[in-house]
Amino acid sequence: VQLQASGGGLVQAGESLRFSCAVSGSIFGAYSMGWYRQAPGKSRELVATISNDGTTNYVDAVKGRFTFSRDTVKKTMYLQMNSLKPEDTAVYYCYYWGYWGQGTLVTVSS
């Protein structure tokens, strides 16, 4: 199973970014998926999940700003991040069925 993430970069506060994470080598959607992030000097934390029935959950810090979606045909999950804040600066990881995508850095300047 491989997860290939893309997106990220340097943005200013208030701007938007979208991550993509393509899954190969596995049945897509049979298990819950997640996006995590790790800020400098902090532990990795859960950002959002989507269950196999499509139900999404978000941590309070990103509710109303981030949207987790998936495309079962393309076998890809997405994280749309709007109204970004400096505290969103972190390395972001996608997760599926025990496997991790490579980290993708997001830097939000104030």
Description:
The structure is a single chain. By secondary structure, the protein is an all-beta fold. It has no helices and 11 strands. Strands 2, 4, 5, 6, 9, 10 and 11 form a 7-stranded mixed β-sheet that branches.
Q: How would you summarize this macromolecular structure in one to three sentences?
A:
With 110 residues, the chain is mostly beta strands. It is built from no helices and 11 strands. Helix content is 0%, strand content 54%.
Query: How many strands, what sense, and barrel or not for the largest sheet?
Result: 7 strands, mixed
What spatial form do the alpha-carbon principal axes imply? Answer: globular
Termini separation (Å)? 37 Å
Proportion of beta-strand residues: over 45%
Percent helix, as a range, is under 10%
Tags for this entry?
seven-stranded mixed beta sheet
Furnish the topology, listing elements before pairings.
Elements: E1 2-6, E2 9-12, E3 17-24, E4 33-38, E5 45-50, E6 56-58, E7 66-71, E8 76-81, E9 90-96, E10 99-100, E11 104-109
Parallel strand pairs: 2-11
Antiparallel strand pairs: 1-3, 3-8, 4-5, 4-9, 5-6, 7-8, 9-10, 9-11
